[in-house]
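Hi F.,

I've been meaning to write this up properly since the lab meeting, where we talked about keeping a consistent format for the predictions we share between groups. The idea is simple: the sequence comes first, exactly as it goes in, then the structure tokens exactly as they come out, then a line or two of notes. No screenshots and no reformatting. I'm using this chain as the first example so we have something concrete to point to.
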Amino acid sequence: MTCTRFRTARTSCWNRRDLGLLALRLGTGAVLAAHGSQKLLGWFGGGGVSGTTAAMDAMGYRPPKASALAAGLGEAGGGALLALGLATPVGGAAAAGTMAGAAAVHAPNGFFAMNGGYEYPAFLGFVAAGLAVTGAGRYSLDHALGHALDRHWMVPAALVGAGAAALAVVASRDTSREKGVNEEEDSA
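Output, unedited:
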């Protein structure tokens, strides 16, 4: 911790851990929020709800429109909460659960992102889950609000809830259309 003493007898301390959490939250939260806004609003070259609904349908998520909205809200909402450091367990868990669904789509392509693998969504999901567990740090709205939305019991509740929801969504995914497409490509 680095502290500076002012002439007014006031001391200002900058904690490296809290600055690191701020940087991690802002970067990860902004990336997630941008991806979610692509899905919900069509920003940054995204398809909006209609394009995301079509993509969810092609990936076997049922119902596709509800899946598109859930993915967009999990990314945009979770990312915004992480960036602000507000309700950090909920924001981190929502983003991590959404990224688990994305990783499931990419898993057949292996690990590395350059081959279409699950590396990138898994990384974002682990960072979001780590922030949910660690907390937002002093430079956050959670800290400013006295941790009213960041209680200790919220961490396991949010992560278990998001994990169960992600597992249910991924398990109910209909991958038969993808297999059919891949089989047709292999026979051509």
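Notes:
Residues 57 and 166 are 17 Å apart (CA to CA).
The helical segments are 16-41, 48-59, 64-84, 88-106, 119-134, 141-144, 154-171, 176-187.

If this format works for you, I'll send the rest the same way.

G.
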